[in-house]
Amino acid sequence: MKVLFICTHNRCRSILSEAITNHVGQGKIEAQSAGSQPVGEVHPLSIKYLQEAGISTEGLISQSWNEFEDFAPDVVITVCDSAAGESCPLWFGKSVKVHWGLADPSKLTGSEEEIAQAFRTTIDEITQRVNAMLSINVNTQDQQALREAFQALGAQ
């Protein structure tokens, strides 16, 4: 299964989701991430806390969803509210689209420990969803069943 995570700037939540999905999925799921308005760099704390969790950060880059026309994802998951409200490119037309709202740990202000805890909480939440994703036993061609299964995961 191919999954594309979308967040407007593609620097934190979508990056975390891509890295965690590829790590936990161990080849059963191929994940990428992109943004409608990418900033061109991954948030440094995303890298720091992924590495702390033992998750590879190799190859993670902030990039435009225009780079993924040939990727043909089975599922496109928006992880920020602003991306959920945007019109996706036409070439996403055959993909199931769902929204998994995630708090943005990179926008938190507070002590270093509070910010660290926000990143760890987001990483844990994504990891739980990906573990549940691996147990989905749905044919990727059955778009309604796939949509329902992924929407349920986002509601957890």
UniProtKB/TrEMBL annotation:
InterPro entries: Ptyr_pPase (IPR023485), Ptyr_pPase_sf (IPR036196)
A molecular function (GO) term: arsenate reductase (thioredoxin) activity
Enzyme class: oxidoreductase
Domain of life: Bacteria
EC number: 1.20.4.4
Stored Gene3D superfamilies: 3.40.50.2300
Residue ranges of every copy of the Phosphotyrosine protein phosphatase I domain listed in the record: 1-136
One protein family per Pfam: LMWPc
Keywords tagged on the record: Arsenical resistance, Oxidoreductase
PANTHER family (alphabetical): ARSENATE REDUCTASE
Protein name: Arsenate reductase ArsC
Organism, scientific name: Paraglaciecola mesophila
